[in-house]
Amino acid sequence: MNLKIKVLAVFISLFLINTSxxxxxxxxxxxxxxxxxxxxxVNLWIEILKEYKGKPNVQYLEVGTYEGxxxxxxxxxxxxxxxxxxxxxxxxxxxxxxxxxxxxxxxGAQKKVTIVQGYSEVELRKLPFNTYDIIYIDASHNAHDVFxxxxxxxxxxxxxGILIFDDYAVYPEYPVELKPKTAIEAFLNCYRNYLDILxxxxxxxIRKKNIPLPQNWEERDEDTFIRxxxxxxxxxxxxxxxxxxxxxxxxxxxxxxxxxMMIYSRxxxxxxxxxxxxxxxxxxxxxxxxxxxx
Length: 294
Ligand SMILES: C[S@@+](CC[C@H](N)C(=O)[O-])C[C@H]1O[C@@H](n2cnc3c(N)ncnc32)[C@H](O)[C@@H]1O
Fold this sequence. Notes:
By secondary structure, the chain is α/β, with parallel strands linked by helices. It has helices at residues 3-26, 42-48, 69-77, 94-107, 120-123, 143-153, 180-190, 217-222, 253-265, 277-280, 285-292, and strands at residues 59-63, 85-90, 113-117, 132-137, 157-165, 195-200, 204-208, 225-228, 231-234, 239-242, 248-249, 267-268, 273-274.
């Protein structure tokens, strides 16, 4: 392709992207929203959720819908297949509920929607495990509430599903127990072997890894394991097994030491997990990476 054609192709694709984003923002205009919290996240959500757009049987859960800004945007733009479903949870103070219901009516998608009214720490416990493809946590912003919402949502999310936290960076001046950041970072650290971080800015977006937990209690209880790629590494016995088949993996004592160095030195850096150079430059590192497939 010569240069002129390349430049023209870039302009055309930019025009098409901007037009489709403008359309997706346009959908807000028909709704009654006292504040539009969601418009600034639209570009990010279009990109991250594109694999779900228009797909059958997608299930979405929103914790904290308020008047429905992000909720109706999802219905209009991602949950467009007639078998897609959305569950909206909120304490729904009377005025908020009236506006939410009016917006839902405007969306014309009431049939796809389940409304759950109450406190998230109570209602999330009643929802079905391993059900939702996408969960958005945007209810109370106290750290303990955000942490509880995340921990309660985790078993509801399918493996490979997406969890979105709002307001990671809000209230920088507040004490730690009053900001979502404290809870989000604690959650990421606690669950770090079970997730990938897809995005971190005003929102933090993660994907739940496809990691089946050990099937029986004896296996869970007998040792403490950490997942690396396709394998589980058991800290006490210093053994690795294939996570799916439980076949043992041969490891030299040097490889086991390097795995332990990785476990103890991994840091959550804000954008993902980093390993120090003494690990990544270790002569066995790239071979081990291949062997464990991480
Ligand atoms: C920031 S608003 C949600 C905005 C909405 N997601 C959007 O983008 O348009 C937060 C909502 O969470 C609800 N909420 C706060 N604490 C809650 C709790 N503990 N359980 C359930 N809902 C809660 C509030 O009623 C409010 O409607």
